[in-house]
Amino acid sequence: MPRWRSFRLPKRTRPLSGGCEQTVVLQDFVAGSVGELSIQSGQTVELLERSGERPGWCLVRTTEHSPPQEGLVPSSTLSVSHSRSSVDMDCFFPPGKENYPVGSSEVKSESSASLQPQTSVTSLPTGSPGPKRSGTTGNTLKKWLTSPVRRLSHGKGDNTNAKKPNNKQRKRDGRKSVELGPSHQDSTEERGRRGVNSGGEEEAEDEPHTPLPPPMEIIKDSSAQEEKTPEPGSFPVLGSVSPSDQTPRDPETEQKNKAMRGRMFVLNEMVQTERDYVKDLGVIVEDFMKRIGEKGIPEDMTGKDKIVFGNIHQIFDWHKEFFLGELEKCLQDHDRLAELFIKHERRLHMYVIYCQNKPRSEFVVAEYDGFFEEVQQEINSRLSISDYLIKPIQRITKYQLLLKDFLKYSTKAGLDCKELEKAVELMSLVPKQCNDMMNLGRLQGYEGKLTAQGKLLQQDTFFVTEQDSGVLSRSKERRVFLFEQIVIFSELLRKGSSTPGYQFKKSIKVNFLSLEENADSDPCKFVLLSRGSSERLALQAANVDIKKEWVQSIQKLLDMQINFLTALQNPQEYHKKETGGSLTRQLSNSSRSSSSHPSTPLKPNTAPNGSPAHKPNKHAEELDEGECNGLSSVLVLQDYNAVKEDEICVVVGETVQILASNQQNMCLVYRPANSQSPAAEGWVPGHVLSSTR
């Protein structure tokens, strides 16, 4: 261990001399524990003091926040000013490592371990004050710029008769020399007293005949530095451990601790980025929307302003007033994270609605770009409105990535990850649904009502070959959308663009659909036919897996059609079968078992148990009165569009039959076939239903 380290005084904190000084942050740092401060590259902070308990850390204060924030940061993240004295610089450079001059053949590196004890700090009187900053900051700066090696001993006292080094010597050495031993005329006591009076700032007299010590050995391994024992007479260094005290670390424990630190880092990133996200949403709601309301909109834009923002106000309110606070609580209890996303997964489906509106929003913003640029300048916004409107889509994707990282570290730490795996699965589906809705929102030319076609089950790009009356057309690239009630074929517009569009070409209703699983001995091909027509559409998928998914989804729809036709022919037998067997299968055909609602068969004269967060309302009470004899027919009070795979769309005025309900006030209903749509079975919220009298 270099000898000079052994003389560090064991104080709790050691303030920097000369008061506070501002410095620039070189790299980002995220606080990982209480007492630390998050900083960003380029930020200006004030240096307050160094930490005695945590070597290599400094206490800083921000200059850009009101009120200013204080906390510990690593010294390596700061740009150290050259106007610091040598004692101050101890805080910023790792002990045992020095800067050495390069390019001068006459100058040798000096070893701090070779300095004479007579000139060390221990030679100072115990009651003397610590080193003080020189009166001239310019001289201090010049010394640090011209002296690559820091002086650890004090020079000679202030002597008016002292011989000053000439210019030739300065040019030859490239630096001011450091006195390595006592002069023959001075005693040790006198040298110590003079060193105190001068504050260690005055330069020693040049002694060209004094031999230089050999260069200090460069320590490559920091652990080897700690293993060196201090020489007799020196004070023990805080935190140093002798080889006999060191115990071998368990690799398994070390790996677990590393994984736990990784978990904490990911969680900190999630919370910090959530705070930034809420601020960005606030710019849209509290700046853009507010200014547009005050300024007014162009006459031809009336009604389109709502399309621009969609339901972003709802997203902002929920994140600001609820979700951010819940995430911050997870910093104290990490196990809350998975439960938080699972519990509020349905709430996050408001992003699906936002994404469905996003293509129309982009179109309006592009049409009135001049108006929105004016608003941007008036509110002094750094980013455009388009940059802010894309942030909800970026955020819903970010949750999935952060949760995957959190799961990865939790698995490495050997923790129970069942709930986390479920949360990751759910948050992987929400971005997929958002992407599906964004693509669907770019479909042009379809005159029907897409929301009346049931849930979007699949969408992908195929090469489609049409054959009508024996005439085979050329293969064309088509975007195909599979709904519960219709298959839509569209042409890709703006191919290669980040915001592609789709032009409607043709469609086949599911109740007229037929399927041929194999075509032309091609494992990636299948054929769709329309009953009552000679038209055949051969679809070639990009790979076998895509073909299998589509064939399974289409076959499932066709099986449901057959079952419902059977039910129409013999309703009593169908209801008996459904009430007996189907209620116990837990919707096994659902492609996503984790999102299906746990069903509970209704008993006569019993109402569904509402959860504490959802009190039974008037409609639920009406359901209770109408649910007799195992099944009840109810009227739909309002339209409902399915947002999950096991739900169905219902329209106001339709009559449905309740098959089961659960504690979330969701009802499993059967909707009979009518002239516009086939029969369907799925979940709907209880508040959209009312019993018939």
What would you note in describing this structure?
Keywords: Cytoplasm, Guanine-nucleotide releasing factor, SH3 domain. Residues 218-230, 247-257 have a biased composition (Basic and acidic residues). Residues 262-437 form the DH domain. Residues 61-81, 102-257, 575-625 are annotated as: Disordered. By secondary structure, this protein is α+β, with helices and mostly antiparallel strands. The protein has four domains: 3-198, SH3 Domains (SH3 type barrels, Roll); 252-441, Dbl Homology Domain, Chain A, CATH 1.20.900; 455-565, PH-domain like (Roll), CATH 2.30.29.30; 589-691, SH3 Domains (SH3 type barrels, Roll), CATH 2.30.30. It is built from 17 helices and 21 strands. It has helices at residues 86-89, 137-146, 167-173, 188-198, 222-227, 251-295, 305-309, 312-329, 336-343, 350-367, 369-378, 385-389, 391-412, 418-441, 544-569, 571-580, 618-626; strands at residues 13-15, 21-25, 44-51, 57-62, 70-74, 78-79, 443-444, 456-468, 471-472, 476-483, 486-493, 501-509, 513-516, 525-530, 536-540, 600-601, 632-636, 655-661, 666-671, 680-685, 689-691. α6 runs antiparallel to α13 (391-412) and α15 (544-569) packs across α16 (571-580). The longest helix has 45 residues, at 251-295. The radius of gyration is 38 Å and the shape is elongated.
Structural class label:
alpha+beta
Q: CATH superfamily of the largest domain, please?
A: SH3 Domains
Shape: elongated
| Oligomer class | single chain
Integer tally of domains: 4
User: What is the β-strand count?
Assistant: 21
Low-confidence stretches: 1-18, 81-165, 167-208, 221-245, 581-630
Q: In angstroms, what is the radius of gyration?
A: 38 Å
Amount of beta strand:
15-25%
Mean pLDDT: 72
Through-space gap between termini: 91 Å
